[in-house]
Fold this sequence. Notes:
Blueprint: H1 2-22, E1 36-44, E2 52-60, E3 63-69, E4 77-78, E5 81-85, E6 88-93, E7 101-103, E8 106-108, E9 110-117, E10 120-127, E11 134-140
Antiparallel strand pairs: 1-2, 1-11, 2-3, 3-4, 5-6, 6-9, 7-8, 9-10, 10-11
Amino acid sequence: MRIYARAIVIVGILTAGMLAAAQVAKVPTQAAAFLGTWTVTMTAPDEMKGDKVTVRIWDKNGSLAASIQTRQEGPAIEATGVLLDADMLIFTVSHQGKQPMRENGAPIWATFTLTLDGDSLKLAQMLERSATIKRGVGRRQ
């Protein structure tokens, strides 16, 4: 009887492990075109034209991850949320991020929408205290 009970426990543990492995999140195949590091040249508004930002999209343990580096000498800021919606990739940076975006020293939320146009990446950026949508176009590095 003890051998039978042990066998049931072992089978239960193995089954649970296989189920957990089967449920590991996979990055959607539609996201593959976004993966990589992109150099984006800002096109609007006028005061940002020509500024460069770096956007990175990667697979982080089966989930999409993203970061943006807005200043060449500054650190990349990791997204707190990433969502793939059909042909759009949207990522956010919240106040609670490890390194939130800041404006005049105060943390702000930011939303970034990315779309692909051939080999180009189009970016639209919205910041908490700004009525202006900032835009740019980039290429994969």
